[in-house]
Amino acid sequence: MSERQYAVYILASRKNGTLYTGVTGDLENRVFEHKEKLMEGFTKKYNVQRLVYYELHESPEHAIMREKQIKKWKRTWKLNIIEKDNPQWKDLYNEFDSLTKREERKLAFIPERVTGTHDKIIYNPGFLPSQE
Q1: pTM across the whole model
Q2: Does a structural domain hold residue 63?
Q3: Looking at the predicted structure, is the pLDDT value of residue 84 above 70?
Q4: Residue 52: is it exposed, middle or buried by C-beta count within 10 angstroms (0-12/13-18/19+)?
Q5: Do 17 and 72 share a domain, yes or no?
Q6: What total of structural domains would you count in the chain?
Q7: Side by side, which strands form the sheet with 19-24?
Q8: Which DSSP helix (H) or strand (E) runs through 14?
Q9: CATH number of the domain within which 21 lies
Q10: Confidence class for position 106, pLDDT limits 50, 70, 90
């Protein structure tokens, strides 16, 4: 059983497009949430969903410190770290997530009617297969 890892990541709308920097304790699920537009906010509004850079940390404190550091950087510096490791700006999510896991994850988010006028998304963590 592996220890939990924390990730600092950068998403892009397209090559040289809008950038978003975030931190998470579950990179695959967090990027999935961005891609499926399950959370309101910046990435949904500006269609920022391509995972173009990430780095792993062993503690949440280190990951949060690094996220804050990167968020203060000039855009050019962010572009440089993306270009260094991912010059084609490939969506790195596709490299570590299988189609089967993606489909299972989609089924874990169940639309539910609320007062008959709007849908809300309910996350059912018990639906996902165990990570053992």
Answers
A1: 0.74
A2: yes
A3: yes
A4: buried
A5: yes
A6: 2
A7: 19-24, 6-12, 50-57
A8: none
A9: 3.40.1440.10
A10: low
